[in-house]
């Protein structure tokens, strides 16, 4: 599975994927559920570091609250636009762009299709069709916030000789799903802007996702959303979820709606019995993909094909809260064509996938971007072990398909240490490491109690180093905890 999070310098959301819910591993390794998956690249690196994402978000937040941005295009008060303002000059000012986006936002709010399409070149039939589709899809969502704002412009916005200008405008779609997002979040588009002559209108001639900076595993920033990807979306509203899928697969959304709600209520029951009495989201956005190609291109354009059966993406808030960058919401994506949804007993497997991803989505808002330099610095055994623990809560360890082969690996000689992030995806041991994380949480709960388990995990998510969290919450050093856990695992192996 994957837990996703904020992006970096230009961003893509990060992720936490659990291979157990992905393509099965080779026969030699402890299998998750059926034939295991090839070990994908760094699970935590699926997207980009939390701190870098926070910085990128700060730029977006600046736009959202009206802070001036550093634009790479010409400054409207600089020499080029002034020269272009002559008799034959062509220029596009920041004020014009702001007006264009304001009118676009107002048309969406007013459900005015003609007004929404007014920004786009009417000669570009495919573009008009695509934006019409987007307008209609957005109309199916419970949007309490929906506005378009400038991130930055790139290219020459003025020409003193009347030749016309073409440049790129990166646009933030700031939106909030009512009842599901704690704060507005942002998806980034890149618009191609054209003005052919001095008195010509400003036209948008192309729209795509704004490219993410850095070396993350997404080429874009939370793009495409389901509303961009599918010609027609189906939105299934339940008491605990907003389920989105291709309208052609509406029956699949209806089929899994009870499983989603059951998974949410199960997780919330465990959470409320043990977690600190702080506000927690009780409603989740779940997108149903059909195959790995779709998994690779929902809320991201992955640089590598997805292997997991589910992932959770943390959405950075578009505005700062009390001067701090926070998580505004999450998006869960599952592949309903994965074997865990389709094989015999698949409904039970589906609950495991959903509960694991919901566990990530419950904990992700606890992340403090200022304290956690990079999401990749959170220990995998804590993050994934906790999600596994919640997914199997109330069931014996034997319920996990990993257990039999994992116990054999312990019997064959095991070093008794918690897996490091550097070794997490070591060839042939990835699913074993998930199992070790699961048993670490089991042992912690048995020895220290579930309330302390939740406090420990929350402290780690909040940026406390794991060794210090062990001392502060459990009252033992991490080495002492590890020694006791290693004895516990060896006893399991008999």
Please sum up the structure shown:
By secondary structure, this protein is α/β, with parallel strands linked by helices.
CATH topology of the domain at 63-209: Nuclear Transport Factor 2, Chain: A
SSE order in H/E notation? EHHEHHHEEEEEHEEHEHEEHHHHHHHH
Indicate the percent of residues in helices: 25-40%
**Which structural class matches the secondary elements?**
alpha/beta
Protein name: Peptidase MA superfamily
Biased composition (Pro residues): 9-39
Keywords: Membrane, Transmembrane, Transmembrane helix
Organism: Micromonospora echinospora
Descriptive keywords:
494 residues; alpha/beta; Nuclear Transport Factor 2, Chain: A; six-stranded mixed β-sheet; four-stranded antiparallel β-sheet; 16 helices; 12 strands; 38% helix; 17% strand; elongated
Report on the structure:
The protein is α/β, with parallel strands linked by helices and 494 residues long. Among the domains are: 63-209, Roll (Nuclear Transport Factor 2, Chain: A), CATH 3.10.450; 379-494, no CATH class. The protein is built from 16 helices and 12 strands. It has helices at residues 50-64, 79-84, 94-109, 113-117, 125-138, 226-229, 250-274, 292-295, 339-342, 346-363, 380-391, 403-411, 430-448, 450-461, 466-474, 478-493; strands at 2-4, 90-91, 143-154, 158-159, 165-177, 185-195, 203-209, 233-237, 241-246, 284-289, 310-316, 327-335. Strands 1-11-12-10-9-8 form a 6-stranded mixed beta sheet. A 4-stranded antiparallel beta sheet has the order 3-5-6-7. The longest helix is centred in the middle third of the chain and has 25 residues, at 250-274. The chain crosses the membrane at residues 46-71. Keywords: Membrane, Transmembrane, Transmembrane helix. Residues 1-41 are annotated as: Disordered.
């Amino acid at each position: 599975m994957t837990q996703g999070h904020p992006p970096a310098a230009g961003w893509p959301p990060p992720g936490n994927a659990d291979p157990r819910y992905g393509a099965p591993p080779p026969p030699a390794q402890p299998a998750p559920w059926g034939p295991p998956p090839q070990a994908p690249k760094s699970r935590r690196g699926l997207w980009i570091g939390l701190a870098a994402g926070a910085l990128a978000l700060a730029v977006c937040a600046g736009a959202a609250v009206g802070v001036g941005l550093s634009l790479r295009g010409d400054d409207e008060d600089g020499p080029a636009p002034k020269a272009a303002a002559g008799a034959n000059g062509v220029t596009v000012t920041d004020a014009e762009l702001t007006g264009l986006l304001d009118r676009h936002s107002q048309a969406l709010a007013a459900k005015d299709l003609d007004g929404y399409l007014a920004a786009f070149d009417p000669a570009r039939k495919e573009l008009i069709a695509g934006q019409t589709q987007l307008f209609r899809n957005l109309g199916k969502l419970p949007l309490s916030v929906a506005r378009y704002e400038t991130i930055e412009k790139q290219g020459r916005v003025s020409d003193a000789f009347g030749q016309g200008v073409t440049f790129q405008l990166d646009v933030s779609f700031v939106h909030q799903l009512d009842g599901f997002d704690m704060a507005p979040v942002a998806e980034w588009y890149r618009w191609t802007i054209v003005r052919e002559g001095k008195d010509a209108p400003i036209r948008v001639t192309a729209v795509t996702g704004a490219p993410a900076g850095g070396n993350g595993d997404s080429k874009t920033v939370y793009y495409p959303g389901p509303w961009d990807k599918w010609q027609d979306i189906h939105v299934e509203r339940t008491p605990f979820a907003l389920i989105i899928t291709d309208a052609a697969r509406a029956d699949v959304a209806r089929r899994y709606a009870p499983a989603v709600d059951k998974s949410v209520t199960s997780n919330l029951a465990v959470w409320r019995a043990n977690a600190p009495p702080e506000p927690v989201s009780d409603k989740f956005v779940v997108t149903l993909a059909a195959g790995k190609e779709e998994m690779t291109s929902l809320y991201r354009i992955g640089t590598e094909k997805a292997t997991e059966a589910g992932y959770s993406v943390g959405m950075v808030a578009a505005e700062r809260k009390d001067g701090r960058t926070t998580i505004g919401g999450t998006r869960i994506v599952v592949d309903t064509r994965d074997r865990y949804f389709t094989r015999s007993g698949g409904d039970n497997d589906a609950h495991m996938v959903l509960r694991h991803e919901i566990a990530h989505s419950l904990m992700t808002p606890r992340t403090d971007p200022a304290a956690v330099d990079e999401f990749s610095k959170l220990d995998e055994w804590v993050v994934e072990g906790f999600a596994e623990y919640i997914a199997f809560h109330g069931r014996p360890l034997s319920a996990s398909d990993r257990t039999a082969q994992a116990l054999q690996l312990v019997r064959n000689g095991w070093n008794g240490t918690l897996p490091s992030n550097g070794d997490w995806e070591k060839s042939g041991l990835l699913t074993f490491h998930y199992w070790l994380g699961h048993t670490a949480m089991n042992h912690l709960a048995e020895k220290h109690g579930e309330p302390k388990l939740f406090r420990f995990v929350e402290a780690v998510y909040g940026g406390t180093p794991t060794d210090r969290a062990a001392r502060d919450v459990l009252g033992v050093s991490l080495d002492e905890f590890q020694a006791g856990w290693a004895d516990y695992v060896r006893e399991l192996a008999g």
